[in-house]
Please model this.
Amino acid sequence: MQIRFGAIEKFSTIDYPGKLACVLFLKGCNFRCGFCYNKQLVLPELLDSRQDIPEKEIQEFLDSRKGLLDSVVVSGGEPTIYGLKLIQLFKTIKDKGYLVKLDTNGSNPKLVKTLIEMGLVDYIAMDLKDDFENYNRYTRVQASKVKQCLELLKVASVPHEFRVTTHPQLSLEGFREIIKLTEGQKLFVQDFMNVNTIQDYKNCNTIYSKLSSDSKDYILR
Model:
């Protein structure tokens, strides 16, 4: 499957910790989270609503920013659905001298492990949606694969973080379970944005306001 580039953010100071970055957004995802605000990159019926960016254009842009940017963030959608093609993309980016960060939902632990072992990824951010018992609300992917990826990152030498969005379906109980699962790992929490979401939410109340800014278990964004 050929990689489909949906968008590029040409300059970011927040997507790779401490580095100047650009962000590549890949089309396609194996999850269907109702609170996702990138539905044009997720829903098959919307993937063609925005013209793909040719890979040649991506490569030319990266060549033009050598020495100006430190890193490339590969996001989505879900990048790991592209399998071996993603490995090749990461090789190409690394050969240009950039650090590479992967944003992932954790559904392909085998590929993530390969990227780590080949030295092709320098930072990984993994999203956690809920307690694993509730993952059938968001995807048909086996939650065991996501848990496997979480456990892989917890012992990995590559810098990483976990991320949670306090969407309307996430309860305090579910959030507390995520804290237990991450066991003191770096955990960032952001509130839900009811903009361009897959699901139309009438009730947008979330647990975010109940969380502490002084917690040792997580960091509010």
User: Anything to note?
Assistant: The domain at 5-220 is CATH 3.20.20.70 (TIM Barrel). The longest helix spans residues 84-95.
